[in-house]
Amino acid sequence: MTVEELYASLMDAWNKRDAKAFEDLFILDGDIVGFDGTQIHGQGSIGEHLRTVFGDHPTLPYTYRITGVTQISTEVAIVRAIAGMKPPGAKDFDPKLHAIHRLTAVHRGGAYRVALFQNTPAQFHGRPQDVEQMTADLRSVTS
């Protein structure tokens, strides 16, 4: 599995609200930093946290676009991506839900696994043109 496929699998698990599939993509001592700043350490804790999130909140699916990959070494890579969500019944993305994603992957046991997934709000304060550009980029994924 390439790092791009790893990221796509992570987004697929989120979109299916499958906490087990999401957590299984991480190394045992992996980390997430959530959209609201929540920090979770450890594969089991990540799954437990997401089971609670999925059970308590009607999470929306992500539309995403990988914007690049930095290969740090033969064992480490970083995936850069943008992501957005459309509220139920909406025809367009809600810019308040735009996010910048970073996924740090490590090659262990013959495959890439997630070491860190960070999900940061993309508000671009004072730069409405950047919000508009990101929305246009996300629209192009679904066109």
Question: What does this entry look like structurally?
Answer:
With 143 residues, the chain is of the alpha+beta class. Helix content is 34%, strand content 35%. The protein has a 6-stranded mixed β-sheet with strand order 2-1-6-5-4-3. The longest helix has 15 residues, at 128-142.
Q: What is this structure's SSE topology?
A:
Blueprint: H1 3-15, H2 19-24, E1 26-33, E2 39-41, H3 43-56, E3 63-71, E4 76-84, E5 99-108, E6 111-121, H4 128-142
Parallel strand pairs: 1-6
Antiparallel strand pairs: 1-2, 3-4, 4-5, 5-6
Approximate helicity band: 25-40%
Percent of residues in beta strands: 25-35%
Separation of termini?
27 Å
* Largest β-sheet summary: 6 strands, mixed
Low-confidence stretches: none
SSE string, helices as H and strands as E:
HHEEHEEEEH
Shape: globular
Strand tally, please? 6
Please report the number of helical segments: 4
Rg computed from alpha carbons, rounded to a whole number of angstroms: 15 Å
Describe the structure concisely:
The chain is an alpha+beta fold. The chain has 4 helices and 6 strands; from the N terminus they run ααββαββββα. It has a 6-stranded mixed beta sheet.
Task: List the defining traits of the structure above.
globular; alpha+beta; six-stranded mixed beta sheet; 143 residues; 4 helices
